[in-house]
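testing teh design pipeline on a random one, pls ignore if ur not involved
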């Protein structure tokens, strides 16, 4: 088993999301973060260190021959955040070592440890954390090999299981439903609200080339930001009641706690049209009054239905975890073999030079006088034999090492 690997982590699985921040290196970016990590590496006698903070986990991936025990872990996190007490650290930090740290890394990269199982964002975050640590010379060949293995395993998981297949975010699901309506790309879309959720919706509208979008928002600047991305029109929310262009689809999502679209306003916005309209309401509570759905010809896509769908899809992804675990087991076995081979290859890398040096020493020192007494032909034969022996001697330990490693 690869020794020396350790992961110290705090994750959403055992810790409240708002407490995870206490285990992240505080207020540190760029050079400040770099020198903080460099100091940690020296202070705790780490050969390698990789740091990955995300919003629902923080990972410290270490390679060290130090004894990583309770005292080490307490000291480590109190260096990061002196306000943390030992008991809290003991409760929240999970320590994986050796094989288990690699297993955890592979599981994280394949998203089975994620809050939303099957999301690929974590792989990007891991790679970003690794690249940063590598560029700052915090990591070496051990963490490089582990990360290579984790990335290969994750790619295999995403391509050969259905773990990331069904959407689980409300916005992706809403867009999936919208696409089923097969509206043309020049369909008239009214978007109400320009917060985070509608910004995500915008990403998809851009992706699917919707080109006729009017955005209404209380703060016009935010509507303008979205309009720019969609080449659309930004208007103030107060202008909504004056809109006369009709619509094919309405996407409503604001933080208002009362309905924004009531029966009268909807009637007005229809502008006399009677064809079915798509109404997407992503707000909690709903921003489109229940009466609107009852009285008009509406294809209604709303958050409660989407949440149910998200739950079903998440359950589907969860079922894939068993398949993922079988794949990961195989990748971990392969990693162990590769890792052992690389360790031996590294240990053997000086063998050729050392054998050459033995030969040189024999020829030029130990047997110098004997060789001088030989005739030319005998000397050449001896040299050829020595070169032959040198090559064969290099091959023997390499071959033996490979057979031991596999
Ligand atoms: N974020 C999510 O993942 C998510 C997912 C599903 C549903 N939701 C729901 O979506 C709604 C909006 O969430 P968000 O994350 O997009 O919020 P957000 O980023 O805070 O944006 C809120 C939006 O609502 C507008 N707004 C707030 N109060 C309003 C009021 N009284 N009248 C008119 N407009 C008002 C804001 O206008 P200004 O720009 O003028 O402030 C802004 O456009 C909430 O009901 C939330 O529960 C959110």
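output:
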């Amino acid at each position: 088993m690869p020794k020396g690997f350790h992961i110290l982590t705090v994750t959403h699985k055992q810790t409240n999301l708002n407490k995870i921040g206490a285990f992240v290196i505080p207020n540190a970016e760029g050079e400040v973060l770099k020198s903080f990590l460099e100091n940690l590496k020296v202070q705790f006698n780490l050969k390698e260190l990789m740091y990955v903070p995300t919003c629902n986990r923080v990972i410290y991936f270490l390679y060290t021959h130090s004894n990583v025990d309770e005292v080490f872990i307490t000291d480590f996190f109190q260096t990061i955040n002196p306000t943390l007490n030992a008991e809290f650290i003991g409760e929240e930090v999970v320590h994986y070592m050796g094989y288990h740290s690699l297993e955890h890394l592979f599981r994280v990269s394949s998203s089975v440890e994620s809050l939303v199982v099957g999301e690929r964002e974590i792989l990007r975050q891991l790679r970003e954390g690794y690249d940063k640590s590598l560029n700052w010379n915090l990591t070496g060949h051990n963490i490089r090999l582990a990360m290579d293995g984790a990335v290969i395993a994750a790619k295999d998981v995403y391509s050969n299981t259905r773990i990331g297949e069904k959407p689980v975010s409300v916005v992706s699901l809403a867009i999936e439903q919208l696409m089923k309506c097969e509206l043309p790309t020049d369909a008239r879309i009214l978007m109400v609200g320009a917060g985070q959720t509608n910004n995500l919706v915008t990403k998809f509208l851009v992706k699917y080339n919707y080109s006729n979008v009017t955005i209404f928002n209380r703060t016009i600047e935010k509507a303008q930001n979205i309009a720019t991305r969609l080449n659309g029109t930004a208007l103030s929310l107060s202008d909504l009641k004056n809109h006369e262009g009709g619509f094919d689809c309405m996407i409503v999502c604001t933080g208002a706690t009362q309905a924004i679209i009531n029966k009268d306003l909807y009637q007005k916005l229809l502008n006399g049209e009677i064809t079915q309209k798509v109404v997407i309401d992503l707000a909690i509570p709903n921003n489109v009054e229940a009466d609107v759905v009852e009285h008009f010809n509406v294809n209604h896509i709303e958050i409660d239905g989407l949440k149910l769908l998200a739950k079903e899809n998440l359950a589907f992804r969860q079922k894939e975890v068993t398949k993922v675990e079988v794949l990961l087991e195989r990748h971990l076995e392969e990693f162990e073999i590769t890792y052992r081979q690389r360790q031996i290859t590294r240990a053997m890398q000086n063998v050729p030079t050392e054998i050459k040096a033995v030969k040189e020493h024999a020829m030029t020192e130990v047997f110098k006088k004997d060789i001088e007494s030989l005739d030319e032909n005998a000397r050449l034969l001896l040299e050829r034999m020595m070169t032959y022996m040198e090559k064969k001697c290099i091959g023997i330990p390499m071959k033996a090492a490979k057979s031991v490693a596999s």
